[in-house]
Amino acid sequence: xxxxxxxxxxxxxxxxxxxxxxxxxxxxxxxxxxxxxxxxxxxxxxxxxxxxxxxxxxxxxxxxxxxxxxxxx
Length: 73
Hints:
About 75% of the residues lie in helices and about 0% in strands. By secondary structure, the chain is mainly alpha-helical. The chain is elongated.
């Protein structure tokens, strides 16, 4: 983690503290695995119904992700 922060020049910087404390790797892995396991048919069905990317995200993905969001928080 230190090497990553050093490479992005975030040592002795407030953003380095924010990213180090607010974005643990476990949370990212948990969210990635959750969204990776969602069936693609949900998105396809929404596209057929005329939904755009933001509508799909707000109406389908966020409600389904509430348990994982609760776990992360």
